[in-house]
Amino acid sequence: MNRENKRKSFDRGYYKTHRCCETFTCKVCGRLVVPADAGSEHRNHCPNCLSSLHLDDQPGDRAADCGGIMEPVAVWVRRSGEWAIIHRCRRCGALHSNRIAADDNPAKLMSIAMRPVVLPPFPLEKVDEMTALMGGDEP
After folding, report:
1. Which of 33, 34, 87, 137 is deepest in the core (most CB within 10 A)?
2. What is the SS3 assignment for 16-39?
3. The RNHCP domain covers which part of the protein (predicted)?
4. Distance of alpha carbon 72 from alpha carbon 44, whole angstroms
5. For residue 45, what are the β-bridge partners?
6. By three-state DSSP, how is residue 94 classified?
7. Mind listing the pLDDT tens digit of every residue in the chain (139 residues)?
8. What is the pTM of this model?
9. Where are the domains of the chain?
């Protein structure tokens, strides 16, 4: 084991300051993920299904003991206009935000972004009734 590999194995903060250039296989869709062309030095999710693994408590620390699948549940837009994915761990429920990468699946990103519109958390037929109950004007 060379010095660099040993440092990766034992230094919890290694990925905060060093580039993550390791290839991995997605645990959800089985795709081989190569960090090249991601537009970032820290590839942490599959560009095909957008899933990840729960490895970090803080970005790059590799301190999480959970190891569960992080599924994409939402997207949001940062002040800079950059999109980010909200991941939720299937095992422990932890939520994390990750920047999208240049090679992420645009159809999958849009389907996640449209989910609240397509499947609202309330029946659309009840909008008038709920508006009246909240003291608003009915359309």
Report:
1. 87
2. HHCCECCCEECCCCCCEECCCCCC
3. 22-110
4. 12
5. 52
6. coil
7. 444 454 445 455 555 555 566 778 899 999 888 776 666 666 788 999 999 988 887 776 777 788 899 999 999 999 999 999 999 999 999 999 988 988 899 999 999 999 988 888 778 788 788 788 887 665 5
8. 0.71
9. 3-133
User: For the chain, how long is the longest CA-to-CA vector?
Assistant: 70
Q: Which helix (H) or strand (E) holds 86?
A: strand 83-89
Distance, CA of 28 to CA of 59 (rounded, Å): 21
Rounded Cα–Cα distance for residues 82 and 33 (Å): 22
Q: How many CB atoms lie within 10 A of CB 103?
A: 17
At 19, list the tokens: 């580039």
CB atoms within 10 A of CB 54: 21
Contact 113, 104 (CB under 8 A): no
CA 4 to chain centroid, in Å, comes to 28
